[in-house]
Amino acid sequence: MTSHAAASNASANEPPAADVGSLRKIRAREYALRFGFGAAVSVVAGVVGLLAGYRLGGLFLAFPAILPATLTLLEKKDGVAQAVSDVRGAAIGAVSMLGFALIAVALFPRVHGAAILVALGVWIIAGLALYAGLRVLARLLGERQYLPEIPASEAGPALEGLRRQGWTIGVAESCTGGLVASMLTTLPGADTVVRGGVVAYTDAVKETALGVNGDTIASRGAVSPEVAREMAIGVARKLGADVGLGVTGHVGAPHDGTSRGLTFIAICLPDERVFLRTYTKDHGAGRNRERDVRMAIRLIVDATGAH
């Protein structure tokens, strides 16, 4: 892995996408709990409406029927940070529903069908405006940060892919602070494929511990595809691994003029090919870090053919 020039690369940006495959991970019991709770609240609203009048019953229709069950499942499965994010989204939706209700009450007596459509439009516009405003406010005031709470099982396919290929791996991390290596080494049997990891958070450590060229950092910046590539090559060489993974990026506010949320992840294979992934969207510091860890694991899966 000594030839940098011989390495090829393939880059991928971060397009909006729906992860349909994640639906297969949801158990039937989880669907039943969500919809069962929602159905129970609807039944209570109907009974109260029959007994005490529909104005009182309508109060129960405003109850977040599915949210409590969803938050409980999220907290257990994906951690507190994900549950907190869902609470924030639910709060925005609830406030926007006030606009929906006011428009519906004002227009429904005169134009039934149009009232619902207009109220729905108000709800969507209000929700988007609140979301954008709160994102700006969070940046100005700062927000509490959480370490990613990613299930360790997500690293299983990456380890299995490396094991199937007969490869070992070394990991060099900057913005993820060792979380990728921690994910990989959490599962049993990781010692057969993981050689080790280096947290190269400063430019000096990138140069001394990984052999990243100082001129590359000076000319291209510490957060650049070139540095990610040299980190991957350098950690494989230093640790005597077949495969090297390099992660460099900004989880928070950058200081070098590059964009917030920018991350480059590179993987170097035994045949000296280097594959690169680029992520540019800013989801907030905590979610950026979570994304980077997950995408690093996914890159290992893709590179080893462990689909």
State the CATH class of the largest domain.
Alpha Beta
- The secondary-structure class comes to alpha/beta
Quickly give the CATH architecture of the largest domain.
Answer: Alpha-Beta Complex
The CATH H-level homologous superfamily of the largest domain: CinA-like
Instruction: Please tell me how large the radius of gyration is.
Output: 24 Å
Shape: elongated
* Largest sheet descriptor: 5 strands, mixed
Task: Tally the structural domains.
Answer: 2
Strand content is 5-15%
Helical content, roughly?
Answer: 55-70%
Q: Span between N and C termini? A: 25 Å
Number of strands: 5
Report on this structure:
The protein has 2 domains: 20-141, no CATH class; 152-304, Alpha-Beta Complex (Maf protein). It has helices at 28-52, 54-61, 67-77, 80-107, 112-141, 156-165, 179-186, 203-210, 214-220, 225-239, 285-304; strands spanning 169-173, 194-199, 243-249, 263-268, 274-279. 55% of the residues lie in helices and 10% in strands. It has a 5-stranded mixed β-sheet with strand order 2-1-3-4-5, with helices on both faces. The protein starts with 27 loop residues before the first helix and ends with a helix. Helix 1 runs antiparallel to helix 3 (67-77), helix 6 runs parallel beside helix 11 and helix 7 (179-186) crosses helix 11. It is elongated. With 307 residues, it is of the alpha/beta class.
What is shown here, in short?
It contains eleven helices and five strands; from the N terminus they run ααααααβαβαααβββα. The protein is of the alpha/beta class and 307 residues long. It has a five-stranded mixed sheet, with helices on both faces.
